[in-house]
Amino acid sequence: MAYYSTVLLLLYLSWVLSFSLVCSQNDLPVKAASIGNWLLIEGWMKPSLFDGIPNKDLLDGTQVQFMSTQQKKYLSAENGGGKNLIINGSSASSSETFRLWRINETFFNLRVSNKQFVGLENEGQGSKLVAVSTSPKSSEIFQIIRKEDDKNRVHLQASNGQFLQVKSDADITADGNGSSWDDDDPSVFTMIIGSGLQGEYQLTNGYGPDKAPQIMKDHWNTYITEEDFNFMSQNGINAVRIPIGWWIMYDPNPPKPFVGGSLEALDNAFKWSEKYKLKVIVDLHGLRVSQNGFAHSASRDGFQEWGSSDIQETVDIIDFLAKRYANQPSLLAIELMNEPRSPGINLDDLKKFYKDGYDAVRKYTKDGYVIFSNRLGGDLKELISFSNSFSLVVIDIHMYNLFWMGFDNMTVQQNIDYIYNSRGSDIKSVSDQGPLVFIGEWTSEWDVKNASKEDYQKFAKAELEVYGRASFGWAYWAYKCDQIHWSLKWMIENRFIML
Question: Alpha-carbon distance 115 to 463, whole Å?
Fold first, then answer.
Protein backbone atom coordinates (compact mmCIF):
# COMPACT_ATOMS: atom_id res chain seq x y z
CA MET A 1 0.00 0.00 0.00
CA ALA A 2 2.84 2.38 0.92
CA TYR A 3 4.45 1.61 -2.44
CA TYR A 4 1.34 2.62 -4.40
CA SER A 5 0.94 5.77 -2.30
CA THR A 6 4.52 6.74 -3.10
CA VAL A 7 3.96 6.12 -6.81
CA LEU A 8 0.78 8.22 -6.78
CA LEU A 9 2.57 11.02 -4.95
CA LEU A 10 5.41 11.00 -7.46
CA LEU A 11 2.95 11.07 -10.36
CA TYR A 12 1.11 13.97 -8.76
CA LEU A 13 4.32 15.94 -8.20
CA SER A 14 5.36 15.25 -11.78
CA TRP A 15 2.01 16.55 -13.01
CA VAL A 16 2.30 19.70 -10.88
CA LEU A 17 5.81 20.37 -12.24
CA SER A 18 4.69 19.78 -15.81
CA PHE A 19 1.66 22.01 -15.31
CA SER A 20 3.75 24.86 -13.89
CA LEU A 21 6.22 24.58 -16.76
CA VAL A 22 3.42 24.63 -19.32
CA CYS A 23 1.89 27.67 -17.62
CA SER A 24 5.24 29.44 -17.70
CA GLN A 25 5.88 28.52 -21.31
CA ASN A 26 2.44 29.79 -22.30
CA ASP A 27 3.61 33.28 -21.32
CA LEU A 28 6.31 33.12 -24.02
CA PRO A 29 7.53 34.70 -26.11
CA VAL A 30 7.11 38.08 -24.46
CA LYS A 31 6.58 41.31 -26.32
CA ALA A 32 7.69 43.68 -23.61
CA ALA A 33 8.33 47.36 -23.08
CA SER A 34 11.15 48.45 -20.80
CA ILE A 35 9.85 51.17 -18.52
CA GLY A 36 13.11 53.07 -18.38
CA ASN A 37 13.58 56.41 -16.62
CA TRP A 38 10.76 55.70 -14.18
CA LEU A 39 12.17 53.96 -11.11
CA LEU A 40 15.74 54.52 -12.27
CA ILE A 41 16.53 57.88 -13.85
CA GLU A 42 18.28 58.22 -17.21
CA GLY A 43 18.60 61.93 -17.86
CA TRP A 44 18.88 61.74 -21.64
CA MET A 45 15.35 60.35 -21.77
CA LYS A 46 13.86 63.44 -20.09
CA PRO A 47 16.50 66.17 -19.70
CA SER A 48 14.02 68.67 -18.25
CA LEU A 49 14.10 66.76 -14.95
CA PHE A 50 17.46 68.41 -14.28
CA ASP A 51 16.46 71.97 -15.16
CA GLY A 52 15.92 73.16 -11.58
CA ILE A 53 19.33 72.10 -10.26
CA PRO A 54 21.69 75.01 -9.45
CA ASN A 55 25.08 74.68 -11.14
CA LYS A 56 23.64 71.73 -13.07
CA ASP A 57 26.77 71.58 -15.23
CA LEU A 58 28.71 70.49 -12.11
CA LEU A 59 26.93 67.29 -11.09
CA ASP A 60 28.50 64.19 -9.57
CA GLY A 61 30.86 62.50 -11.99
CA THR A 62 31.42 65.55 -14.19
CA GLN A 63 34.99 65.49 -15.50
CA VAL A 64 36.79 68.81 -15.14
CA GLN A 65 40.26 70.16 -15.78
CA PHE A 66 41.90 73.27 -14.32
CA MET A 67 44.41 75.30 -16.29
CA SER A 68 46.48 77.94 -14.50
CA THR A 69 45.89 81.27 -16.24
CA GLN A 70 49.36 82.35 -15.20
CA GLN A 71 51.30 79.25 -16.24
CA LYS A 72 49.04 78.11 -19.12
CA LYS A 73 49.47 74.56 -17.81
CA TYR A 74 47.08 72.07 -16.28
CA LEU A 75 46.68 71.02 -12.67
CA SER A 76 47.66 67.36 -12.54
CA ALA A 77 47.71 64.41 -10.15
CA GLU A 78 51.24 63.10 -10.54
CA ASN A 79 51.18 59.53 -11.92
CA GLY A 80 47.37 59.65 -11.80
CA GLY A 81 47.30 59.83 -8.00
CA GLY A 82 49.14 58.71 -4.89
CA LYS A 83 51.49 61.70 -4.92
CA ASN A 84 51.52 65.50 -4.99
CA LEU A 85 49.60 67.72 -7.35
CA ILE A 86 51.73 69.44 -9.95
CA ILE A 87 51.29 71.70 -12.97
CA ASN A 88 51.98 69.63 -16.05
CA GLY A 89 51.88 70.48 -19.74
CA SER A 90 49.72 72.52 -22.06
CA SER A 91 47.42 69.65 -22.94
CA ALA A 92 45.23 67.50 -20.68
CA SER A 93 44.98 63.74 -20.29
CA SER A 94 43.61 61.43 -17.59
CA SER A 95 46.09 62.66 -14.97
CA GLU A 96 44.82 66.20 -15.49
CA THR A 97 41.17 65.18 -15.22
CA PHE A 98 39.21 65.28 -11.95
CA ARG A 99 35.79 63.73 -11.31
CA LEU A 100 33.48 65.72 -9.08
CA TRP A 101 31.79 64.40 -5.98
CA ARG A 102 29.21 67.05 -5.26
CA ILE A 103 28.57 68.00 -1.63
CA ASN A 104 26.32 70.92 -2.49
CA GLU A 105 26.11 73.37 -5.37
CA THR A 106 29.55 74.91 -4.73
CA PHE A 107 31.48 72.42 -2.53
CA PHE A 108 33.05 69.28 -3.99
CA ASN A 109 35.54 66.44 -3.61
CA LEU A 110 37.93 65.95 -6.54
CA ARG A 111 38.65 62.32 -7.48
CA VAL A 112 41.62 61.49 -9.70
CA SER A 113 42.12 58.74 -12.27
CA ASN A 114 43.63 56.31 -9.73
CA LYS A 115 40.54 56.88 -7.55
CA GLN A 116 42.19 58.88 -4.77
CA PHE A 117 40.87 62.25 -3.59
CA VAL A 118 42.68 65.57 -3.69
CA GLY A 119 43.31 67.14 -0.30
CA LEU A 120 45.76 68.91 1.97
CA GLU A 121 48.85 66.98 3.04
CA ASN A 122 49.09 65.39 6.50
CA GLU A 123 45.29 65.04 6.66
CA GLY A 124 44.73 68.78 6.48
CA GLN A 125 47.62 69.93 8.65
CA GLY A 126 49.81 71.15 5.78
CA SER A 127 49.29 73.43 2.81
CA LYS A 128 50.62 71.30 -0.06
CA LEU A 129 48.11 69.55 -2.34
CA VAL A 130 48.23 65.75 -2.57
CA ALA A 131 46.01 62.98 -3.99
CA VAL A 132 46.48 60.09 -1.59
CA SER A 133 43.23 59.48 0.30
CA THR A 134 40.98 56.62 -0.83
CA SER A 135 37.94 58.07 0.95
CA PRO A 136 37.07 61.75 1.21
CA LYS A 137 37.39 63.52 4.55
CA SER A 138 37.02 67.14 5.59
CA SER A 139 40.51 67.94 4.32
CA GLU A 140 39.44 66.82 0.83
CA ILE A 141 36.63 69.39 0.45
CA PHE A 142 37.00 72.29 -2.00
CA GLN A 143 34.76 75.17 -2.92
CA ILE A 144 34.67 76.05 -6.60
CA ILE A 145 34.07 79.80 -6.75
CA ARG A 146 33.04 80.88 -10.25
CA LYS A 147 33.49 84.41 -11.61
CA GLU A 148 30.07 86.00 -12.01
CA ASP A 149 30.44 86.98 -15.67
CA ASP A 150 32.70 84.08 -16.71
CA LYS A 151 31.63 80.80 -15.11
CA ASN A 152 34.71 78.94 -16.37
CA ARG A 153 37.11 81.25 -14.51
CA VAL A 154 37.45 79.91 -10.96
CA HIS A 155 39.17 80.00 -7.62
CA LEU A 156 39.56 76.77 -5.64
CA GLN A 157 39.21 77.31 -1.91
CA ALA A 158 40.59 74.51 0.31
CA SER A 159 39.31 73.31 3.68
CA ASN A 160 41.76 75.64 5.50
CA GLY A 161 39.97 78.64 3.99
CA GLN A 162 42.91 79.48 1.71
CA PHE A 163 43.02 79.38 -2.09
CA LEU A 164 45.02 77.05 -4.32
CA GLN A 165 47.86 78.81 -6.03
CA VAL A 166 50.65 77.78 -8.36
CA LYS A 167 54.11 78.72 -7.04
CA SER A 168 56.02 76.49 -9.46
CA ASP A 169 55.41 73.39 -11.56
CA ALA A 170 55.94 71.16 -8.50
CA ASP A 171 54.71 73.48 -5.80
CA ILE A 172 50.88 73.73 -5.55
CA THR A 173 49.74 75.08 -2.20
CA ALA A 174 46.58 76.25 -0.47
CA ASP A 175 47.80 79.54 0.95
CA GLY A 176 46.65 82.14 -1.58
CA ASN A 177 44.24 84.98 -0.91
CA GLY A 178 42.19 84.80 -4.13
CA SER A 179 42.09 88.56 -4.30
CA SER A 180 41.74 89.07 -8.04
CA TRP A 181 40.60 87.46 -11.30
CA ASP A 182 43.60 88.62 -13.34
CA ASP A 183 45.45 86.24 -15.63
CA ASP A 184 48.70 86.74 -13.71
CA ASP A 185 47.11 85.83 -10.36
CA PRO A 186 48.53 82.39 -9.39
CA SER A 187 45.20 81.41 -7.78
CA VAL A 188 43.08 81.82 -10.95
CA PHE A 189 42.24 78.79 -13.06
CA THR A 190 40.28 78.22 -16.22
CA MET A 191 37.88 75.32 -15.61
CA ILE A 192 37.24 73.10 -18.62
CA ILE A 193 34.07 71.05 -18.19
CA GLY A 194 34.10 67.70 -19.97
CA SER A 195 31.78 64.72 -20.02
CA GLY A 196 29.34 64.10 -17.20
CA LEU A 197 26.58 61.83 -16.01
CA GLN A 198 22.84 62.34 -15.69
CA GLY A 199 21.47 59.47 -13.65
CA GLU A 200 19.54 59.07 -10.43
CA TYR A 201 22.54 59.87 -8.25
CA GLN A 202 23.12 63.14 -10.08
CA LEU A 203 19.44 64.09 -9.95
CA THR A 204 18.82 63.43 -6.26
CA ASN A 205 22.17 64.75 -5.05
CA GLY A 206 21.85 67.74 -7.34
CA TYR A 207 18.51 68.81 -5.91
CA GLY A 208 19.57 67.87 -2.39
CA PRO A 209 17.61 66.40 0.54
CA ASP A 210 15.11 69.25 0.78
CA LYS A 211 13.89 69.19 -2.82
CA ALA A 212 14.72 65.72 -4.18
CA PRO A 213 11.92 63.78 -2.39
CA GLN A 214 9.18 65.92 -3.95
CA ILE A 215 10.86 65.94 -7.35
CA MET A 216 10.99 62.14 -7.36
CA LYS A 217 7.46 61.70 -6.02
CA ASP A 218 6.05 63.95 -8.73
CA HIS A 219 8.04 62.07 -11.36
CA TRP A 220 6.88 58.61 -10.21
CA ASN A 221 3.25 59.73 -10.08
CA THR A 222 3.17 61.34 -13.52
CA TYR A 223 5.77 59.74 -15.79
CA ILE A 224 4.06 56.35 -15.72
CA THR A 225 0.43 55.86 -14.66
CA GLU A 226 -2.16 53.10 -14.70
CA GLU A 227 -3.32 54.37 -18.09
CA ASP A 228 0.08 53.47 -19.55
CA PHE A 229 -0.39 49.85 -18.52
CA ASN A 230 -3.82 49.90 -20.13
CA PHE A 231 -2.29 51.39 -23.30
CA MET A 232 0.34 48.65 -23.50
CA SER A 233 -2.23 45.92 -22.95
CA GLN A 234 -4.41 47.33 -25.72
CA ASN A 235 -1.54 47.64 -28.19
CA GLY A 236 0.12 44.25 -28.41
CA ILE A 237 2.44 44.41 -25.39
CA ASN A 238 2.14 41.48 -22.98
CA ALA A 239 4.93 42.23 -20.49
CA VAL A 240 6.89 45.04 -18.89
CA ARG A 241 10.55 45.08 -17.98
CA ILE A 242 11.04 47.45 -15.04
CA PRO A 243 14.57 48.71 -14.25
CA ILE A 244 15.20 49.43 -10.56
CA GLY A 245 18.12 50.50 -8.38
CA TRP A 246 19.84 48.68 -5.51
CA TRP A 247 18.52 51.13 -2.90
CA ILE A 248 14.95 49.86 -3.32
CA MET A 249 15.74 47.19 -0.71
CA TYR A 250 16.24 49.95 1.86
CA ASP A 251 13.01 51.79 1.08
CA PRO A 252 11.50 53.93 2.62
CA ASN A 253 14.83 55.24 4.02
CA PRO A 254 17.54 54.39 1.48
CA PRO A 255 21.10 55.65 1.78
CA LYS A 256 21.50 59.27 0.70
CA PRO A 257 21.15 60.85 -1.74
CA PHE A 258 18.49 58.39 -2.91
CA VAL A 259 14.97 58.95 -1.64
CA GLY A 260 12.24 56.53 -0.62
CA GLY A 261 9.17 55.77 -2.69
CA SER A 262 10.25 53.61 -5.61
CA LEU A 263 9.13 50.45 -3.82
CA GLU A 264 5.55 51.70 -3.59
CA ALA A 265 5.66 52.55 -7.29
CA LEU A 266 6.87 49.03 -8.10
CA ASP A 267 4.04 47.60 -5.99
CA ASN A 268 1.63 49.66 -8.09
CA ALA A 269 3.18 48.29 -11.28
CA PHE A 270 2.37 44.76 -10.13
CA LYS A 271 -1.24 45.73 -9.36
CA TRP A 272 -1.70 47.37 -12.73
CA SER A 273 -0.01 44.49 -14.53
CA GLU A 274 -2.38 42.01 -12.95
CA LYS A 275 -5.38 44.19 -13.82
CA TYR A 276 -4.36 44.50 -17.47
CA LYS A 277 -2.98 40.97 -17.85
CA LEU A 278 0.66 41.94 -18.30
CA LYS A 279 3.65 39.99 -17.02
CA VAL A 280 6.44 41.67 -15.07
CA ILE A 281 10.21 41.32 -15.42
CA VAL A 282 11.96 42.98 -12.49
CA ASP A 283 15.36 44.15 -13.69
CA LEU A 284 18.10 45.06 -11.21
CA HIS A 285 19.56 47.81 -13.36
CA GLY A 286 21.65 49.85 -10.93
CA LEU A 287 24.11 48.31 -8.47
CA ARG A 288 26.07 49.92 -5.67
CA VAL A 289 29.44 51.17 -7.01
CA SER A 290 28.24 50.29 -10.54
CA GLN A 291 28.63 47.24 -12.74
CA ASN A 292 29.39 49.28 -15.86
CA GLY A 293 30.09 52.92 -14.98
CA PHE A 294 27.16 54.29 -16.98
CA ALA A 295 24.61 56.80 -15.72
CA HIS A 296 21.85 54.21 -16.03
CA SER A 297 23.57 52.14 -13.32
CA ALA A 298 23.19 55.14 -10.96
CA SER A 299 26.97 55.47 -10.85
CA ARG A 300 28.23 58.45 -8.87
CA ASP A 301 31.30 59.21 -10.95
CA GLY A 302 31.56 56.76 -13.85
CA PHE A 303 34.05 54.38 -12.27
CA GLN A 304 33.08 50.72 -12.52
CA GLU A 305 33.85 49.14 -9.16
CA TRP A 306 31.41 46.28 -8.53
CA GLY A 307 33.31 43.10 -7.62
CA SER A 308 33.48 40.04 -5.41
CA SER A 309 33.06 42.06 -2.19
CA ASP A 310 29.69 43.32 -3.47
CA ILE A 311 28.21 39.92 -4.30
CA GLN A 312 26.49 39.30 -0.97
CA GLU A 313 24.66 42.62 -0.83
CA THR A 314 23.49 42.18 -4.42
CA VAL A 315 22.23 38.67 -3.62
CA ASP A 316 20.41 40.13 -0.62
CA ILE A 317 18.63 42.56 -2.94
CA ILE A 318 17.55 39.71 -5.21
CA ASP A 319 16.38 37.77 -2.15
CA PHE A 320 14.34 40.80 -1.04
CA LEU A 321 12.70 41.15 -4.46
CA ALA A 322 11.96 37.44 -4.83
CA LYS A 323 10.45 37.20 -1.36
CA ARG A 324 8.27 40.25 -1.93
CA TYR A 325 6.97 39.39 -5.39
CA ALA A 326 7.22 35.60 -5.84
CA ASN A 327 3.52 35.11 -5.10
CA GLN A 328 2.39 37.89 -7.40
CA PRO A 329 0.60 36.22 -10.33
CA SER A 330 2.07 38.70 -12.80
CA LEU A 331 5.72 38.01 -11.91
CA LEU A 332 7.40 36.35 -14.86
CA ALA A 333 11.11 36.81 -14.19
CA ILE A 334 13.81 38.53 -12.18
CA GLU A 335 16.84 39.81 -14.07
CA LEU A 336 19.79 39.58 -11.70
CA MET A 337 21.96 42.32 -13.20
CA ASN A 338 21.73 44.60 -16.21
CA GLU A 339 24.70 44.99 -18.53
CA PRO A 340 27.76 44.00 -16.51
CA ARG A 341 30.72 45.24 -18.51
CA SER A 342 33.85 43.40 -19.57
CA PRO A 343 36.69 43.60 -18.74
CA GLY A 344 35.71 45.38 -15.53
CA ILE A 345 33.51 42.54 -14.29
CA ASN A 346 35.38 39.30 -13.75
CA LEU A 347 33.51 36.38 -15.34
CA ASP A 348 34.09 34.07 -12.36
CA ASP A 349 32.71 36.72 -9.98
CA LEU A 350 29.71 37.18 -12.25
CA LYS A 351 29.01 33.45 -12.38
CA LYS A 352 29.25 33.16 -8.61
CA PHE A 353 26.76 35.99 -8.25
CA TYR A 354 24.44 34.46 -10.85
CA LYS A 355 24.48 31.11 -9.07
CA ASP A 356 23.83 32.68 -5.66
CA GLY A 357 21.19 34.99 -7.11
CA TYR A 358 19.49 32.06 -8.83
CA ASP A 359 19.43 30.16 -5.53
CA ALA A 360 17.90 33.19 -3.81
CA VAL A 361 15.06 33.33 -6.34
CA ARG A 362 14.46 29.58 -6.10
CA LYS A 363 13.90 29.87 -2.34
CA TYR A 364 10.59 31.55 -3.14
CA THR A 365 9.54 30.38 -6.61
CA LYS A 366 10.16 27.24 -8.65
CA ASP A 367 8.58 28.47 -11.86
CA GLY A 368 9.75 32.07 -12.11
CA TYR A 369 12.37 32.68 -14.76
CA VAL A 370 15.83 33.93 -13.80
CA ILE A 371 17.61 36.12 -16.34
CA PHE A 372 21.38 36.26 -16.74
CA SER A 373 22.61 39.30 -18.67
CA ASN A 374 25.57 38.85 -20.99
CA ARG A 375 28.58 41.07 -20.34
CA LEU A 376 28.96 44.10 -22.59
CA GLY A 377 32.10 43.42 -24.56
CA GLY A 378 32.12 39.75 -23.60
CA ASP A 379 31.78 36.66 -25.76
CA LEU A 380 28.17 36.18 -26.87
CA LYS A 381 28.35 32.52 -25.81
CA GLU A 382 30.27 32.84 -22.55
CA LEU A 383 27.27 31.97 -20.34
CA ILE A 384 25.77 29.13 -22.38
CA SER A 385 27.30 26.08 -20.72
CA PHE A 386 26.98 27.72 -17.30
CA SER A 387 23.30 28.55 -17.77
CA ASN A 388 22.44 25.07 -18.99
CA SER A 389 23.03 23.71 -15.49
CA PHE A 390 19.98 25.61 -14.18
CA SER A 391 16.26 25.40 -14.91
CA LEU A 392 14.14 28.20 -16.35
CA VAL A 393 17.16 30.42 -16.98
CA VAL A 394 17.29 33.01 -19.74
CA ILE A 395 20.26 34.73 -21.37
CA ASP A 396 19.69 38.43 -22.05
CA ILE A 397 21.38 39.87 -25.16
CA HIS A 398 21.05 43.55 -26.06
CA MET A 399 20.97 44.46 -29.75
CA TYR A 400 21.24 48.03 -30.96
CA ASN A 401 22.25 49.18 -34.44
CA LEU A 402 24.12 51.93 -32.60
CA PHE A 403 27.21 52.46 -30.40
CA TRP A 404 29.63 50.96 -32.95
CA MET A 405 31.37 52.88 -35.72
CA GLY A 406 30.42 50.16 -38.20
CA PHE A 407 26.85 51.47 -38.13
CA ASP A 408 27.83 55.08 -38.79
CA ASN A 409 27.67 54.96 -42.58
CA MET A 410 25.26 52.09 -43.16
CA THR A 411 22.36 52.71 -45.50
CA VAL A 412 18.76 51.79 -44.72
CA GLN A 413 19.08 48.49 -46.55
CA GLN A 414 22.43 47.66 -45.00
CA ASN A 415 20.92 48.12 -41.53
CA ILE A 416 18.03 45.87 -42.44
CA ASP A 417 20.36 43.25 -43.93
CA TYR A 418 22.43 43.36 -40.74
CA ILE A 419 19.33 42.54 -38.71
CA TYR A 420 18.40 39.58 -40.88
CA ASN A 421 21.90 38.20 -41.29
CA SER A 422 24.11 39.06 -38.33
CA ARG A 423 21.46 39.43 -35.62
CA GLY A 424 19.51 36.42 -36.86
CA SER A 425 22.66 34.30 -36.84
CA ASP A 426 23.60 35.43 -33.31
CA ILE A 427 20.19 34.52 -31.93
CA LYS A 428 20.26 31.11 -33.59
CA SER A 429 23.81 30.34 -32.43
CA VAL A 430 22.86 30.87 -28.78
CA SER A 431 19.41 29.25 -29.01
CA ASP A 432 20.76 26.13 -30.67
CA GLN A 433 22.94 25.42 -27.64
CA GLY A 434 20.12 25.22 -25.14
CA PRO A 435 19.24 28.33 -23.17
CA LEU A 436 16.23 30.56 -23.68
CA VAL A 437 17.20 33.82 -25.36
CA PHE A 438 15.85 37.26 -24.52
CA ILE A 439 16.55 40.34 -26.60
CA GLY A 440 16.21 42.41 -23.46
CA GLU A 441 16.93 45.75 -25.13
CA TRP A 442 16.54 46.98 -28.68
CA THR A 443 15.16 50.08 -30.36
CA SER A 444 14.16 51.24 -33.81
CA GLU A 445 16.57 54.16 -33.75
CA TRP A 446 19.73 54.06 -35.86
CA ASP A 447 22.44 56.31 -37.35
CA VAL A 448 20.78 56.71 -40.74
CA LYS A 449 20.35 60.41 -41.50
CA ASN A 450 17.11 61.80 -42.97
CA ALA A 451 15.35 58.43 -42.91
CA SER A 452 11.69 58.51 -43.92
CA LYS A 453 8.76 57.09 -42.00
CA GLU A 454 8.68 54.22 -44.48
CA ASP A 455 12.38 53.53 -43.82
CA TYR A 456 11.70 53.33 -40.08
CA GLN A 457 8.74 51.05 -40.67
CA LYS A 458 10.84 48.64 -42.75
CA PHE A 459 13.60 48.65 -40.15
CA ALA A 460 11.16 48.01 -37.30
CA LYS A 461 9.48 45.23 -39.27
CA ALA A 462 12.83 43.49 -39.75
CA GLU A 463 13.65 43.82 -36.05
CA LEU A 464 10.26 42.46 -34.98
CA GLU A 465 10.59 39.50 -37.33
CA VAL A 466 14.14 38.57 -36.27
CA TYR A 467 13.89 39.37 -32.56
CA GLY A 468 10.57 37.54 -32.52
CA ARG A 469 12.59 34.35 -33.05
CA ALA A 470 14.15 34.74 -29.59
CA SER A 471 12.69 31.92 -27.51
CA PHE A 472 11.96 34.09 -24.47
CA GLY A 473 10.98 37.16 -26.45
CA TRP A 474 12.04 40.78 -26.53
CA ALA A 475 11.75 44.12 -24.71
CA TYR A 476 11.82 47.44 -26.56
CA TRP A 477 13.85 50.26 -25.02
CA ALA A 478 11.88 52.15 -23.95
CA TYR A 479 8.16 52.59 -23.40
CA LYS A 480 8.42 56.39 -23.12
CA CYS A 481 11.22 58.77 -24.08
CA ASP A 482 11.62 62.39 -25.20
CA GLN A 483 13.61 61.12 -28.19
CA ILE A 484 10.67 59.94 -30.22
CA HIS A 485 12.05 56.91 -32.05
CA TRP A 486 13.22 55.49 -28.72
CA SER A 487 9.65 55.77 -27.43
CA LEU A 488 7.57 52.68 -28.15
CA LYS A 489 4.42 54.58 -27.18
CA TRP A 490 5.12 57.27 -29.77
CA MET A 491 6.13 54.70 -32.38
CA ILE A 492 2.84 52.81 -31.91
CA GLU A 493 0.67 55.93 -31.85
CA ASN A 494 2.28 57.22 -35.03
CA ARG A 495 2.27 53.82 -36.77
CA PHE A 496 6.03 53.52 -37.13
CA ILE A 497 5.72 50.12 -35.45
CA MET A 498 2.85 47.70 -35.97
CA LEU A 499 2.70 44.91 -33.38
Answer: 41
